[in-house]
Amino acid sequence: MVVHAKQRSADTVQESNVERINITFYTDPICCWSWALEKSFSKLRKEYAGDIATRYVIYAMITDWNCFHDPVNSVSTPAQMGPVWMHASAISGVPMNDKIWFLDPPSSSVPAALAVKSAYLQSNEAGKLYFDALREGVMTKGMNVAKVDVLLRIAEEVEKAHPEKFDAHIFEKQLKSPLPIAALRKDMDEASAKQIARFPTLILESEGKRPVMVTGYRPYEVLLEAMQAASAPMVF
User: Fold this and answer.
1) Residue 13 within a domain
2) Mean pLDDT for the chain overall
3) Which of 20, 39, 62, 115 could disulfide-link to 151, CB 3.0 to 4.6 Å?
4) Which of 145-155 are b and which e, b meaning 16 or more Cβ less than 10 Å from the residue's Cβ?
């Protein structure tokens, strides 16, 4: 099956012939390549609104810097992460504040991951609103999302912008509970069971079709090709 882009008018979207595809997006909240991919991914979701269901699975790659090492990018200290962000920004054209890794580097990605899972406990919509705000905060504003006060400040900003969809008080209460820990552990166990070792990783699935995996940053055209492959009949 060929994937055709929807034809848009000023205020309408025509239906495409794409079968419904479930996409699981495996990511760490402070992964620069995931942030780089989000621009193309958001475009894909907009073009195929109604045809795509997205689920984010959260993974905390950096538990602390004493035990973190990325052999692919030769990163084992915060200062070494800055050039990786600079490179990701140059390749993708997506702005990133790489100076955070020199001025106020996050000590771990666990607090951010727990915060995201806390937000998702309210609803999927609340979770995505907070997730987007957190990533924008760290990626473009240089906010240290390993600090609880920063996480709470982001929650207040999300509530102010979307008071009917997000409650900062509930968020703070749940962040202090065991619930996000269990939710994050479940996500990380899923990623480990599927041997997801690189972020971002997307798995595209359509009923009765062969799943398609996309790993690492890819341009929009590659995502379209993955949609086509995920919609194709299985050949035996």
Assistant:
1) no
2) 91
3) 115
4) bbeeebbeebb
Domain count, the chain: 1
Neighbours of 192 (CB within 10 A): 11
Give residue-wise pLDDT tens across range 197-236. Answer: 899 999 999 988 999 999 999 999 999 999 999 988 765 5
Q: What's 96's domain CATH number?
A: 3.40.30.10
pLDDT tens, residue by residue, 83-101: 999 999 999 999 999 999 9
Answer whether 228's CB lies under 8 Å from 209's CB. no
User: Does residue 8 lie in a domain region?
Assistant: no
Residue for token digits 């996050």? Answer: 106
What is the dihedral angle through the alpha carbons of 215, 218, 221, 226, rounded to the nearest 10 degrees?
10
Residues in CB range of 143: below 8 A, 6 or more apart: 100, 137, 150, 153, 154
Residue 113 C-beta-side C-alpha neighbours within 13 Å: 25
